[in-house]
Specification:
It is built from 13 helices and 23 strands. It is an alpha/beta fold. It binds flavin-adenine dinucleotide.
C-alpha cells in the first residue's frame, strides 16, 4: 500500500481532470494525475464547436440558464444549472489566463451560434479545434506546474480505507499488476461512455469505466438512461465517424434528404436548430423512411471563405474524401455522443462515497437534465472542476440529492473467463440495436438479458483481480439498459416507441445503486 495521504488522486486527463489538477496545485495541494492512455487522449481533444458562456453584450447568464433549462426537458437541476451558467464567464477567464487562444474578431472574442441557444455564445479556438486547443494548453500548464502525471495507469477499483480515506486500486502494466494507493480524496474525471455504442463520435477511451467502478464501490448513479445522439456525423462506408459540428448548422447549413427536401421544416419551429434529440430522431426516421443510408448537410449557402475560416478541420477532413462543402452536400448520420447521467454528485462534486468526487462527463450534476445543450459539457468540466478543487481545500457540508425513483441492481461476480474483444464488440452491437435512438421495452429486456449473460463471463469471481475495462463496459451498458427500461415514457434523449409521450409523473430522476448491503466504510 502506498500512502498518498495528503495528495488527492485525479483520474482522467480531459478538461475536467487537467483543470482540477491545475486548480488544486494553485490552491496549494499536490495532486497526482493518472490516465489509462496517453495524457492527451480524451473526448475533450475532439470537441469542435466550442464552449458556451454568456459573455456577449446582448447575452446574460440568466438567458443561458433559460436555454439550458429548456433543452433539458424538465429534468435540469436549477441550482446546478445556475452555478454552471453564472460561473461560466469566470471559468472562461481562467482559460484565457492559462493561454487558450480563443478566436477573436477585431480584438473581441468571437462568438458562434449553436442549436437551442437563443444567443451567439459559443467561444471557439482554431476555428473548429476548440477541444484540441484547450487540451494542449491545459496539458502544457500541468507539466509546467510539475504536477505528477502517470500515463497508462488505470483506476480499477475503489475501497474505503480503515483510516477514513479511500484506497484506489490502480494498474499500470496492462492489468498484469496492481498497486493500492491510499489517499483522502479521489476525483473521478473519467469521461463518458459513447464508445460502448457501435456507432459513436467518441474515441476508444470513452467506455464508461468510472461509472462501473463507482457503482461496484456502492455509489449512487442517476440519469443513466439519457444518452445523447449527435445527428450529424460523417457517413461513408468504412470511413471513421467524424463529427460535423452543430455550429455548421448554426452558421446556416440545412439538412436535406436524398431528394433534396428539408425534412425538418414543419417538424419543429427551429427546424435544423431544434434540440439535438429532435434532430437526431428526425434524421433516424428519414433514413428509415427512405432506405437511404444517410441524409445530407447542405452548407453550400455559406460563403466559401467564411466556412473555410470557421471550420478548417472539417474542411481538411472532407477534402480527404474529395468533398468541398461550398459545392457538395455532406453525407451524415446520427451516432452516440454524450452521457448525460453518471455518478450522482452534489453542487461541490461530492458523490455518495466519502472521499470520492466526480466532475465532467462522468458526473451527474443535474445540469443537463434529459438533454444536454450543445457546448455546455466542456463548461461543466470547468465549473464543477473548480468547485471540487475548492472543496478539497475548504470542505463545506453538503448532501447528494435523492432520486425520485431508485433501482437496486444486482450484478453478481462471474467466472472471469471470456473472449474479451468479442464481448466488447457484442456490447457495442447490443447497445446500438436495442438501447439506441429509439427504444422499446422488449428490446431493452433482450439487451439486459444478453448483457447479464456477458457479465457472468466478464465479471471476475469474488476475491479475484479487480474487473478490467471490458467487464466495466458490460456493466455500464447494463446500467444504461436497466435505467432505460425503468423510465416508461419518452423525454429528451430517451425515446421509447412503446411510451412515445412525456408523462408528468416521470418528472423525476432514476437512480441506480448496487443491490445488497450498503457500501460499508464509505
Ligand atoms: C467529437 C466530439 C465533439 C464534441 N464537441 C463538443 C463541443 O463542441 N463542446 C462541448 O462542450 N462538448 C463537446 N463534446 C463533449 C465534450 O468533449 C466532453 O463531454 C468533454 O470533453 C468531457 O471531458 P471530461 O474531462 O469529463 O472527459 P474526457 O475528456 O473524455 O477525459 C476522460 C479521461 O479519463 C481517462 N480514463 C477513463 N477511464 C479511466 C480509468 N479507469 N483509469 C484512468 N483513466 C481513465 C481517459 O483516458 C481520459 O483521459 C464533444 C465530444 C466529442 C466526442
Amino acid at each position: 500500500m502506498r500512502d498518498r495521504e495528503g495528495r488527492p488522486l485525479v483520474v482522467g486527463t480531459g478538461i475536467a481532470g487537467l483543470y482540477v489538477a491545475l486548480r488544486c496545485r494553485e490552491l496549494g495541494l499536490h495532486p497526482t494525475l493518472i490516465t489509462k492512455a496517453r495524457l492527451e487522449e480524451a473526448n475533450t481533444r475532439y470537441a469542435q464547436g466550442g464552449i458556451a458562456a454568456a459573455i456577449g453584450a446582448d447575452d446574460s447568464p440568466s438567458r443561458h440558464l433559460r436555454d439550458t433549462l429548456r433543452a433539458g426537458a424538465g429534468l435540469v437541476d436549477r441550482a446546478a444549472a445556475k452555478a454552471l451558467t453564472s460561473e461560466a464567464p469566470a471559468r472562461i477567464a481562467d482559460l484565457v489566463r492559462y493561454g487558450v487562444p480563443f478566436d477573436t474578431i477585431e480584438g473581441q472574442i468571437a462568438l458562434g451560434r449553436e442549436a437551442a441557444h437563443s444567443r451567439a455564445r459559443i467561444l471557439h479556438a482554431g476555428g473548429d479545434a476548440t477541444g484540441l486547443s484547450i487540451e494542449e494548453t491545459l496539458k502544457r500548464r500541468v507539466l509546467d506546474a510539475g504536477i505528477e502525471v502517470r500515463e497508462r495507469t488505470a483506476l480499477r477499483a475503489l475501497e474505503p480505507s480503515g483510516r477514513g480515506g479511500v484506497v484506489a486500486i490502480v494498474s499500470s502494466d496492462r492489468g498484469r499488476s496492481f498497486e493500492k494507493w491510499e489517499t483522502y480524496a479521489v476525483v473521478l474525471a473519467t469521461g463518458g461512455a459513447g464508445s460502448l455504442y457501435r456507432q459513436s463520435s467518441n474515441p476508444s477511451v470513452a467506455t464508461g469505466e468510472g461509472t462501473a467502478i463507482a457503482f461496484r464501490a456502492g455509489a449512487l448513479l442517476t440519469d443513466m438512461e439519457f444518452i445523447q445522439f449527435h445527428p450529424t456525423v460523417f457517413w461513408r462506408e468504412g470511413a471513421p465517424r467524424y463529427l460535423i459540428t452543430e455550429a455548421v448548422r448554426g452558421e446556416g447549413a440545412v439538412l436535406r434528404n436524398e431528394a433534396g427536401e428539408r425534412f425538418l421544416v414543419g417538424q419543429h419551429r427551429d427546424a435544423e436548430l431544434a434540440p439535438r434529440d429532435i434532430v437526431a430522431r428526425a434524421v433516424e426516421r428519414e433514413i428509415e423512411r427512405t432506405g437511404h443510408p444517410c441524409v445530407y448537410l447542405d452548407a453550400t449557402g455559406i460563403p466559401r471563405d467564411r466556412f473555410f475560416a470557421r471550420f478548417p478541420s472539417v474542411c481538411r477532413f472532407l477534402a480527404t474524401y474529395g468533398l468541398d462543402p461550398s459545392r457538395d452536400w455532406i453525407p451524415v448520420t446520427p451516432v452516440a455522443h454524450y452521457m448525460m447521467g453518471g455518478v450522482t454528485t452534489d453542487l461541490e462534486g461530492r458523490t455518495s462515497l466519502r472521499g470520492v468526487y466526480a466532475c465532467g462527463e462522468v458526473a451527474a450534476t443535474g445540469v443537463h437534465g434529459a438533454n444536454r445543450l450543445a457546448s455546455n459539457s466542456l463548461l461543466e468540466g470547468l465549473v464543477f472542476g473548480e468547485r471540487v478543487a475548492r472543496q478539497l481545500v475548504h470542505p463545506v457540508p453538503g448532501r447528494v440529492p435523492t432520486p425520485g425513483r431508485l433501482v437496486r441492481f444486482r450484478w453478481p461476480p462471474g467466472s472471469g473467463r471470456a473472449d474479451l474483444p468479442k464481448a466488447f464488440e457484442r456490447v457495442q452491437d447490443i447497445l446500438w440495436e436495442d438501447v439506441g435512438i429509439v427504444r422499446t421495452g422488449k428490446g431493452l429486456r433482450t439487451a439486459l438479458r444478453e448483457l447479464g449473460e456477458l457479465g457472468r463471463k466478464t465479471e471476475p469471481p469474488s476475491g479475484g483481480a479487480p474487473p478490467g475495462p471490458v467487464a466495466n463496459a458490460v456493466l455500464t451498458a447494463a446500467l444504461i439498459a436497466r435505467s432505460a427500461l425503468t423510465r416508461t415514457e419518452s423525454r429528451g434523449a430517451h425515446y421509447r416507441s412503446d411510451f412515445p409521450h412525456r408523462r408528468p409523473e416521470w418528472r423525476l430522476h432514476v437512480g441506480i445503486v448496487r443491490a445488497g448491503p450498503p457500501a460499508r466504510g464509505f
